[in-house]
Amino acid sequence: MTVLPRLEQRLADAVRARHMHEHAARRRRRARRAAFALAATLALSATALAATRPWTSLDDAVRHGQRPPAPAQHRSLPRLAGHGRASLARFRGKVVVLSFFASWCEPCRRQAPLLARTGRALAKDGAGTALLVSWGDHARDAKRFVARAGLRMPALEDARGRLADAYDVRGLPETFVIDRDGRVVAISRHLTRRRFLARAIARARRGSPPESG
User: Fold this and answer.
1) Is residue 211 part of a domain?
2) Which residues form the domain of 199?
3) Within 13 A of 204's CA, how many CA atoms are on the CB side?
4) Residue 197: CB atoms within 10 Å
5) 113 in the same domain as 14
């Protein structure tokens, strides 16, 4: 008489334990699905934000796939060679590889042959130009550097560093690739590599992507 109730109780306990286990498993599955849905929603929101957010710096905007307007496009600077002044706006409609340099900058010397080839290639098919801006240097030394490096391209002198400030230049060399619409496509805040320039110029040649909305 005592064995049967015990077996029934054990069976009931086992059934109850199984139901509790299944219920906990369902809760875990629902929690995982909810977490996945939340992560997907956050990812989509982040993507949408990256496409529309007014980023606070050139680097942020470019890093998130935007093409912010190049700063200070109408600021004119004296030419290193010859007379007169020029500004970035003068080259609107062309791809521009804007590079800040100084004669005392060793990486600038190493980068010079690449800039020379890039400038010649852009000028050859009329697609654009390389534009040099000396910063933190004496004009005489900058001119000598440009001549010795064979940099036959427009070169300007930023004696007061105002253009450099607009681009938040922190060291040298620093290079900015700008498309035909005057928008920054890519930024190199160190020694520029051939692969970087090739890819950036290819994107700049394609023009600005259409705006959404």
Assistant:
1) no
2) 58-205
3) 33
4) 23
5) no
Q: Half-sphere exposure of 79 toward its Cβ, with a 13 Å CA cutoff?
A: 10
Confidence of residue 186 (pLDDT cuts 50, 70, 90): very high
Question: Which neighbouring-strand residues pair with 132?
Answer: 99, 155
Nearest partner of 193 among 130, 70, 126, 107, judged by Cα: 107
Instruction: Give 50's pLDDT tier (boundaries 50, 70, 90).
Output: very low
3-state secondary structure of 174: strand
Query: Structural domain tally of the chain?
Result: 2
Residue 145 has phi, psi (to 5 degrees) of -60, -45
* Residues 168 and 76 occupy one common structural domain: yes
Residues 112, 198, single domain; the answer is yes
Binned at pLDDT 50, 70 and 90, residue 166 comes out as: very high
Question: Per the omega criterion (within 30 degrees of 0), is the bond before 69 cis?
Answer: no
pTM of the model: 0.72
What radius of gyration do the chain's Cα atoms show? 30
Asked, for residue 174, whether it belongs to a domain, the answer is yes
